């Protein structure tokens, strides 16, 4: 991989060059206009690069924005508990599928001593057993992956196609995959699941850039198909300009190398920090080599440099937001619990065995991580005026930002990166991992 870094050092430096204030303004103006986001604007700040500002007054608890993710993923460990759309992360199937599948995959559907219950679990999973009142909680039907991987499912054909076109076609392990080696891709995914699934998010970012580049190049070739005898070096420069254009959404995110910015674990001594960071770098290199064997595109070689890969992961480490979508299973059982006693007794005879088998974790949210282009521009404050918070109607993977106090027009919209209830010393220690010392009004006052 160091060969790629050395061969394309100039291109890599251009890819990692921070965008100018004008580029930032133009990009986010287009993004907010295209996505019909009103009342906000992204612009450079005096101290922190860029920030999000209010263009109108916001009342407390008012919706500031819903931000569509650039890339996101469900944690691999969470897939046992939740069947969700691989694009928008809505829960899919039915209440029966959600409960039956979870019990089956967790091995809680009874053993040889409980064949009857085990059979009911399988009937639930295949929707051949209907639970009382489950129709009051309808979910979108399950749509298979276009590539046939049987690992990712969707809520609609629209989401399936959108995910396929944006990144999944290169990361699908099915027969219809456009990866160069399904075997290598499976090894990459296994390595990520065993070490750090943030590598999968990085792979999505690279795949998204490659597919955008191919689309741009195809459109450009179509326009110039009558032109002939281009010099190869001119064509190469032209192709890189297209790669820069495809990379543009990722260029807007604040980046540092992953092994430089990752927080030192509590069980690692400060004297061993250099060794720890070298191990993290080696882990990233192992992941990148597997990804290269799976989806390498020779025209996009700079993307497969360790420097680029490390900065992409570091960007997610510093800017990602937890992806959380509430499960309808909780709403279902709460509804049953509120039924009149006469009806509840009869319903409990059917549903209680499943609830007992599920245990305390009967309803687990969809959990993952995602990078949101506008939310990632929001600066931190220990006394923020906004928060990321899902409302009852927000049942998808978008970032929902609400005002937690009145915000005046022209005021910067801030969120807290950490638990703001901690004391000053604890807050500053946690924020050091983000590479800055907080100078918000609260920190200045407490420090004084």
Give a summary of the structure in a few sentences.
By secondary structure, this protein is of the alpha+beta class. It has helices at residues 2-7, 9-16, 21-34, 95-106, 115-125, 157-171, 182-194, 198-223, 232-251, 258-261, 273-295, 306-319, 328-337, 341-358, 424-431, 441-447; strands at residues 40-44, 50-54, 63-67, 71-74, 143-144, 153-154, 321-325, 366-371, 379-380, 386-388, 399-403, 412-415.
Helix percent reads 40-55%
Structural category is alpha+beta
| Arithmetic mean pLDDT | 91
Order of helices and strands: HHHEEEEHHEEHHHHHHHEHHEEEEEHH
Please give the CATH class of the domain at 35-68 and 372-447. Answer: Mainly Beta
Distance between the termini: 49 Å
Are there runs of 5+ residues with pLDDT below 50, and where? 231-235
Radius of gyration: 24 Å
Largest sheet: 4 strands, mixed
What is the third-level CATH name, the topology of the domain at 35-68 and 372-447? Answer: Beta-clip-like
Name given to the CATH homologous superfamily of the domain at 35-68 and 372-447? SET domain
Counted by DSSP, the helix tally is: 16
Helix and strand arrangement:
Elements: H1 2-7, H2 9-16, H3 21-34, E1 40-44, E2 50-54, E3 63-67, E4 71-74, H4 95-106, H5 115-125, E5 143-144, E6 153-154, H6 157-171, H7 182-194, H8 198-223, H9 232-251, H10 258-261, H11 273-295, H12 306-319, E7 321-325, H13 328-337, H14 341-358, E8 366-371, E9 379-380, E10 386-388, E11 399-403, E12 412-415, H15 424-431, H16 441-447
Parallel strand pairs: 9-12
Antiparallel strand pairs: 1-2, 2-12, 3-11, 4-8, 5-6, 7-8, 10-11
Helix pairs in contact: 2-9, 4-5, 6-8, 7-11, 8-9, 8-12
């Amino acid at each position: 991989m160091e060969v790629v870094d050395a061969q394309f050092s100039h291109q890599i430096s251009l890819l990692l060059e921070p965008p100018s204030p004008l580029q930032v303004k133009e990009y986010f103006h287009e993004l907010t206009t295209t996505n019909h986001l009103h009342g906000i604007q992204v612009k450079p700040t005096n101290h922190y690069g860029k920030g999000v500002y209010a263009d109108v007054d916001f009342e407390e608890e008012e919706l500031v924005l819903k931000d569509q993710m650039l890339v996101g993923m469900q944690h691999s460990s969470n897939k046992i508990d939740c069947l969700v759309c691989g694009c928008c992360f809505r829960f899919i199937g039915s209440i029966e599928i959600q409960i039956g599948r979870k019990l089956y995959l967790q091995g809680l559907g009874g053993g040889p001593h409980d064949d009857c219950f085990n059979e009911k679990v399988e009937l639930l999973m295949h929707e051949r057993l209907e639970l009382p009142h489950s129709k009051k909680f309808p979910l979108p039907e399950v749509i298979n992956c276009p590539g046939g991987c049987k690992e990712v499912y969707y809520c609609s054909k629209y989401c399936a196609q959108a995910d396929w076109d944006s990144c999944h076609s290169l990361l699908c392990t099915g027969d219809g995959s456009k990866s160069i080696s399904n075997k290598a891709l499976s090894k990459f995914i296994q390595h990520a699941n065993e070490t750090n699934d943030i590598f999968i998010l990085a792979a999505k970012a690279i795949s998204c850039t490659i597919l955008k580049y191919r689309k741009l190049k195809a459109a450009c070739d179509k326009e110039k198909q009558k032109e002939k005898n281009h010099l190869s070096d001119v064509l190469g420069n032209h192709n890189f300009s297209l790669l820069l254009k495809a990379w543009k959404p990722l260029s807007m995110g604040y980046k540092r190398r992953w092994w430089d910015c990752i927080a030192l674990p509590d069980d690692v001594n400060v004297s061993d920090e250099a060794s720890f960071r070298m191990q993290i770098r080696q882990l990233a290199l192992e992941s990148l080599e597997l990804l290269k064997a799976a989806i390498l595109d020779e025209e996009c070689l700079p993307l497969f440099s360790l420097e680029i890969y490390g900065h992409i992961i570091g960007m997610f480490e510093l800017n990602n937001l937890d992806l959380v979508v509430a499960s309808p299973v909780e709403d279902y059982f709460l509804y049953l619990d509120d039924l009149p006693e006469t009806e509840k007794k009869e319903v409990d005879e059917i549903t209680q065995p499943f609830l007992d088998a599920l245990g305390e974790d009967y309803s687990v949210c969809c959990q993952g991580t995602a990078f949101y282009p506008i939310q990632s521009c929001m600066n931190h404050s220990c006394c923020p005026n906004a928060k990321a918070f899902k409302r009852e109607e927000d049942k998808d993977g978008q970032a929902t930002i609400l005002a937690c106090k009145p915000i005046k027009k022209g005021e910067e919209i801030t969120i807290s990166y950490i638990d703001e209830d901690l004391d000053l010393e604890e807050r500053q220690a946690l924020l050091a991992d983000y590479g800055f010392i907080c100078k918000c009004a609260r920190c200045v006052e407490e420090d004084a």
